[in-house]
Amino acid sequence: MRWWTAIGVAAVVLAAPAVAQTQMPAVVTFKSGADAVTPAGRASLDAFAKRYKPGNPVTISGHATLTESRAAIKADGGTKAEQEQSAPSYAVGLSQRRAAIVRGYLAGRGIPNGVMTTQAFGATRPADPTGKPDTKGRVEVTEGPTSGW
Fold it and tell me: DSSP letters of the chain?
């Protein structure tokens, strides 16, 4: 006999129901080191905004690569040591800028700011949801109760 049944305590495990994302994530790629949305990125975000179901939460996840971060630091005159030391924090900052720009773009397409959350992963998640390696950096936009990757 287990100790919790001996003292008359019932154990209850509550599990949240599995809820799928409302739609496939929109993946927007960027030119290396850049935070401007490309024409292809705008088309992807426009399609996402058209499919958006009002009231659903939206998560905007920014990503950047260490390679593009090192290149940007080098372009600013940084030494090899500075590139290696500063690249991870630079990648997070670039990820934040990319996510903020995408958020502004989607707000301009009618998605309320109050339902959108941004997050920045820098180079910590080097592959997109399909498993494709990240070579230039990206922003993923997901919708629904389980949004976020």
Answer: --HHHHTTPPP----PPP---SSPPEEEE--TT--SPPHHHHHHHHHHHHHPPTT--EEEEEE--HHHHHHHHHHTT--HHHHHHHHHHHHHHHHHHHHHHHHHHHHHTT--GGGEEEEE-TTS--B-TTSPBPSS-EEEEEESTT---
The pLDDT tens digits along the chain (149 residues) read: 443 344 443 333 333 333 345 567 898 999 988 999 999 999 999 999 999 999 899 999 999 999 999 999 999 999 999 989 999 999 999 999 999 999 999 999 999 999 999 999 998 988 776 777 777 889 999 998 655 54
Assign domain 21-143 one CATH number from 3.40.50.1820, 3.40.50.970, 3.30.1330.60, 3.40.50.150: 3.30.1330.60
